[in-house]
């Protein structure tokens, strides 16, 4: 996947409430959705973050709550990749 496949030593996992797994295909799909629907040219990690945020927002316990995520990657490095292959 897009992750490094390991937990870095400087990550304090006791601070995490949840981990939402997102597939590569979902990250690409949400990256494309952001570009097409919102004009947000995020990268693959941004697509993954938004996908996870939408999943969290759809949980009953978060109904009516504000969900925040970070756009941590941008499209300039992905313009010639499958992320922006809309065909």
List descriptors:
87 residues, Rossmann fold, 0% strand
Give the structure's gist in a few sentences.
The protein is mostly helical. The protein has one domain (23-84): Rossmann fold, CATH 3.40.50.1100. It has helices spanning 24-38, 44-57.
Distance between the termini: 23 Å
What does the overall shape look like? Answer: globular
Q: Which regions have little confidence, pLDDT < 50, spanning 5+ residues? A: none
Give the strand content. Answer: under 5%
- Total beta strands: 0
Radius of gyration: 14 Å
- Based on secondary structure, the structural category is mainly alpha
In helices, the fraction of residues equals 25-40%
How would a crystallographer describe the biggest sheet? none
CATH class group: Alpha Beta
Would you tell me the overall average pLDDT? Answer: 89
- Examine the coordinates and then state which fold CATH places here, giving the name of the CATH topology: Rossmann fold
Give the count of helical stretches: 2
Estimate nothing, just give the exact number of structural domains. Answer: 1
Protein model, in words:
This protein is 33% helix and 0% strand. With 87 residues, it is mainly α. α1 packs across α2 (44-57).
What's the helix and strand layout?
Layout: H1 24-38, H2 44-57
